[in-house]
Write a structure and sequence with these properties.
Length: 248
């Protein structure tokens, strides 16, 4: 997750910390139809101008959408101006610290179950295949972002950027990249083999397409970190003058 994306999500959640704003949001989403400012102010028991202020703040944060409609049902001259109405937006907001991506795990598992039911592939093998295919897609995108004819360093940096955007918190350590965070932490604690296998397939599929064999992924479970670790086939450390770089 980028810094801007994180700030936007935090802002959206923080908007509901204000008590009146939170009650207005809960009132609006509980109604079967979009509501007006007058309805919202009466429903929560606050002045109309207070309701207007907080409702519009919720719109700014993307938590509510607006529409305009003539509530009288009349048309033409004398029908009156349309009334601004509020309803829940389609935007989903969640923040987890450290960053987690259980939605991604759910999507991969759902696809694996569908594939298994469709072609008879064992469900775990189907999960690894789905994860590897997603990893390959991410790898292609990462390779493109590294630019034409990228150096080893650019490829590794681009790989770390992609992993960071998905919550892995990569840490460069000489010839290796450790992943300080597991985006599937709670699931991995309860289903170690299943989730770690999925995770390895995802990351291995990515680095295979990104780094031309210059990075490899392996399972190396460590307390407090992701179970996958990356190794460079050629040293990422700049050798001292007169010394050659060594492999891993």
């Amino acid at each position: 997750m980028s810094g801007d994306d994180f700030a936007e999500r935090v802002s959206g959640v923080a908007a509901l910390a204000e008590p009146i704003r939170r009650e207005l949001y809960r009132y609006v989403v509980a109604q079967p139809d979009p509501v007006s400012r007058d309805q919202a102010s009466a429903g929560v028991g606050v002045p109309r101008h207070t309701a207007k202020f907080h409702l519009d703040k919720l719109v700014e944060e993307g938590l509510l959408d607006t529409a305009s409609k003539r509530l009288t049902g009349r048309r033409g001259p004398g029908a009156g101006r349309p009334t601004k109405l509020y309803q829940r937006s389609a935007r989903e907001v969640s923040v987890t610290v450290p960053e987690r991506h259980y939605d991604l795990a759910g999507q991969l598992m759902a696809r694996a179950i569908e594939d298994s039911a469709g072609d008879g592939t064992p469900v775990v093998a189907a999960l690894h295949r789905a994860a590897a295919e997603l990893g390959a897609t991410l790898g292609d995108q990462t390779r493109t972002s590294a630019g034409p004819r990228p150096s080893r360093e650019k490829l590794v940096d681009a790989t770390c950027t992609t992993l960071a955007a998905r919550g892995y918190e990569p840490l460069r350590q000489d010839d290796e990249v450790a992943l300080a965070n597991c985006p599937f932490h709670a699931l991995a604690r309860e289903h170690v083999d299943l989730i770690c296998g999925m995770n390895l397939a995802l990351i291995a599929g990515m680095v295979e397409r990104t780094a031309d064999g210059r990075l490899t992924a392996r399972l190396e479970p460590t307390d407090g970190r992701c179970c996958v670790r990356l190794s460079a086939a050629v040293s990422m450390v700049t050798p001292a003058p007169g010394k050659a770089a060594t492999g891993v």
